[in-house]
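The instructor's notes for this session suggest beginning with a concrete chain rather than abstract definitions. Hand out the sequence below and ask the class to guess, before any prediction is shown, which regions might be ordered.
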Amino acid sequence: MLRIFSLAGVLALLPGLATAYEPNLGVAARVSTLGLSLEMTTAVTPKLNLRAGVNQFDYDYDPEPDEDSGNELTYDGTLDLSSLAAYADWHPWAGAFRLSAGVVFNGNEITASARCDQANCEVGDQSFDSDDIGTLNALVDFDSVAPYAGFGWGNAVAADTGFGFQFDIGVMLQGSPNVSLSSSDSCQGTLSADPTCQQQLDAELEREEQELQDEAEDFELYPVISLGVRYKFF
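After discussion, reveal the predicted structure:
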């Protein structure tokens, strides 16, 4: 709800920022790697527009257990794409082509859980009884503020009124993902009587968390590709 109010505040400012130029307002609906998007655009000068939007999409991942996975854990989870964005679009030739720079208020995250479907599974470098593992919970999130740069085609406040298409390619600097792992309902199997069971499991979770963190270093840059339709109101 707070994100909706924040977006409404940004959009309410756009017409006021354009008072030095002919008042106008365009909207666009998009499908992108940030989710389903709704944007509003207003012009500041004939070559400079301001644009703000909201992005949202959820994707559930629930794979079938792989018989060839050995004693590896099987994760299922949800990719939650949720963000607000604000851009400045420069049209160097006052046409459809534009260069864009902005910021994305990034609420994207991945939540996942895993249970051992075999008698035992490996966590970190150690094998545990499935009841000792319990349920593993994973959270992957990113920097809350991410700079954006890109280019595209389309102008939601172009001189010609009515509908048109928009296309953008860019990149968001979201930082290295933050990975956290935890367990619940653990140490209820063969190691339940061992007071160090949870300590051993937590130590291996830290090891696995670090391995995932190292692998995630390659995802600091997030590609943003979007295609949509726009309409100019006035």
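Then share the key points. The chain is about 15% helix and 50% strand. The CA atoms of residues 55 and 65 lie 32 Å apart.
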